[in-house]
Amino acid sequence: MPLLEVCLLDDSPINGFLGLVLKKPDAVVWLRTPHQKTIAQQIEAAVATYMAPMFETREILSDDVNSFVKICQAILRDYPEHEILLNVTGGDRLQAVLAADVFRKANKEVFYIDTHHFKIINIGLGESKYYQIAALTVNEFIALQGIKMTYGTRFDPEIGRRSPLTYFIAVHIDNLVPHIDKIRDEWIKMGNVKQSVKWDYDDGRIKFLIEYDAEQDRMKCKFGGGAGQKVVEIFKNPEEYLLNGGWLREMVFLRVHKSQYDDVRLDVRLDKESLPLGNKSENLIDIAMMKGSTLYIFQCFSYPITHDSFMELKSFQQTVKLLNAKGFVFVSHKIYHGFIERARELGVSVVVGRRIPIFTI
User: What's the CATH fold of domain 150-155+246-358?
Assistant: First the structure.
C-alpha cells in the first residue's frame, strides 16, 4: 500500500523536509496557507535528491477552524488506497490539535519531530525514538531557505599555522586590542606607501613584538617570554589578519571547530540575487555551522561599538531570521549595556572579550 504523508507547514522548511526524509512517502499533501507556497516549493526542490513523491496542496486559512477540519476529513476520503500519516511538526498549535484529532479518530499515525533532541514522537502511542539522517551541509540548509550560497571555505591551513598567535591575542584581548587600535591608526597614516616598522608591547607580563617588512609585505610576530617565546609570520596583506579583524574571525572559527559540528564554513557569501526584494540582511557571514538540524551563524565586530554597529546588528538579525538560524555576535571591544540589550531584543547572543577564546556551543 502506498504511503501518503500529510504535512502541516510553518515558516521553517526544515520541519517539512525532515518529515519527508524520515518517512519517505510515495505522495505528499501540504496543508499550507497562501503565503507558504514558496516554503513548499523549497522543500520539494531540496528532497528531489532523496526521492520523487507526488505532491499536492490543500490551501488553508489559519483563522477558519471549520474549513480546516473539513479539509482534513476530505484528505482521508480522497486517499482510500493509501496508508496515511500526519506530520504536525509545522503549523500552529490549534491546527496541530485539530488535525491530530481528525486523523487519530481515523486510526492514522500522527507524529511530531523534536529537532533539538533528534526524536520522532508518535502522538497517539506516546512513544518516541531517536532518528538519524545524513548530515546537512551549510549550503544545503541555506538552499532549503530558498537562498543560494556562492562561497564558503571549510578550512585554510594558514588558520592552523596562525592559531598560537590567534589564541594569544584573544587570551590577552583587554590589553592587546587597544594596542592593535593604535597600530591601525599608524598604519592608515602611512598612506599607500608603507614603511618597515616595529611595534612593541611589553607590560612586564605580556610581551608582543610586531616587525613589519615593507619590501616583503610581511609581519613577523613574536609573543610570549623567555623559552616559551613563539614566532608567527604573516604573509600577503598581513593587515587583514592583524588590523582588520582577521584574528577575531579565525578565533571564532577555531572555537566552533572544537564543537561537535556537521559542517562549518568561513567567509560565507550569499547570492544577492537570491535574497528577497527589499531585504536588508547581510550577504556576507563570517562563520556558519550546521549542527544537527540547526544552522548557527557567527558575526565578528572587531572595531569599537558605534551607532553604525547597531545598524550592522539589525542587518545581521535580518540574516538570522531569513535563514531560520541562531545568531551570535562576537565583540572584541568593551561595549555599552545598550548594545547587549538591543541584541537580546533581536534574539541575537553576544560574546564579549575574554569569553571569546573559551566559547563553546
Answer: Trna Endonuclease; Chain: A, domain 1 (3.40.1350)
Burial class (CB in 10 A: 0-12, 13-18, 19+), 227: exposed
Could you state, in order of their start, the residue ranges of all structural domains in the chain?
Answer: 3-134, 150-155+246-358, 161-242
Q: Which CATH architecture has domain 3-134?
A: 3-Layer(aba) Sandwich (3.40)
Distance CA 285, CA 300 (A): 9
Any idea of the CA torsion for 116, 343, 145, 18, to the nearest 10 degrees? 10
The total number of residues shown for the chain amounts to: 361
CB burial class (10 A; 0-12, 13-18, 19+) of residue 307?
exposed
Cβ atoms within 10 Å, residue 222: 17
**Percent composition of the chain: helix, strand, coil (DSSP 3-state, to 5):** 40, 30, 30
Burial of 64 (0-12, 13-18, 19+ CB in 10 A): exposed
Distance set, CA 74 to CA 28, 69, 94, 108, 162 (Å): 15, 9, 19, 14, 63
Degrees to nearest 5, angle at CA 293 with 118 and 357: 105
- What is this structure's pTM? 0.90
Q: Which amino acid, 334? A: K
Cα angle, residue 346 at apex, residues 345 and 348 outer, rounded to 5°: 110
Each residue's pLDDT tens digit, 255-272 = 999 988 899 999 999 998
| Beta-carbon contacts of residue 324 (< 8 Å; ≥ 6 apart) | 11, 12, 13, 14, 145, 295
Q: Are 193 and 177 in contact (CB under 8 A)?
A: no
Read out DSSP for 154-206? S--HHHHHHHHHHHHHHHTHHHHHHHHHHHHHHHHHTTTS---EEEEEE-SS-
CA angle 113, 117, 118 (to 5 degrees): 55
Structure confidence by residue, pLDDT tens digits, 80-101: 999 999 999 998 999 999 999 9
Q: What does the pLDDT read at residue 278?
A: 74
